[in-house]
Amino acid sequence: PAPPPPANLSGLPMEKLRGILITHFHSDHISDIGDFNLNSWVAGRPEPMEIIGPEGVDRVVEGFNIAYELDRGYRVAHHGAELLNPELGVLESRTVGEGVIVEEDGLRITSFEVSHPPIEPAFGYRLDYEGRSVVISGDSLVTEKIIEISDGADVVMHDAMALQLVRGAEGMTRSTGNTRLATVLHDIQDYHASIADLKQLVEQADVGQLALYHLVPAPRNDMALGVYVNSMPEGAVITEDGMVFSLPAESNEIVIE
Fold first, then answer.
1. 253 is a domain residue
2. Around 135, how many Cα atoms within 13 Å sit in the side-chain half-sphere?
3. Model confidence at 2, in pLDDT bands (50, 70, 90)?
């Protein structure tokens, strides 16, 4: 009934999806919401899916609900309301600030502000469960707050920028007269954590495993990938779609598959 979202690559049970944590509202961080909602609804999710995020999340959710209104009607007309309860296809939103936003059944989720100017607010999240912990930076520079909240975490997932590649691309596009793209490439250089700053993170915080995602620019060949591999902090890994991190309870083990 719909194309599979990235979560299906990891075999996640979509019918158990209860909500999504949104860090900020750049398009690349929200564009999959519709597919996740549709696929989990079709899979048999028993409650409306909740989209949790900073101020403004209600407007984003309202927009998705409007955009998918006709599609929801088509699905119900085709398969019947007994199979697809129309109410469960409508997204719900919850606006949160900094602090503990979820605490139930041993799971604690803490939101914290990150630095991704000019986007305000932009959040990261720390998840703690059964003595294990994961920090997700969202998009951010390395800040004192991220260093503090990452201390003691088993896994820290952080965005990363290879400044030398971005600066090289800026120079090349400027030399060819493409000043518009060159300006964009210049502007984003203080937008994401540089690899050098990520070394500062692991030096100042006790981190079990640093995992790099949202690479800027995305490496399209082995040469570009090598820039990250050769300059990233020792022991860090570069994530790939479908990669799974398992943290067994009451253990220090980190299993990456």
1. no
2. 28
3. very low
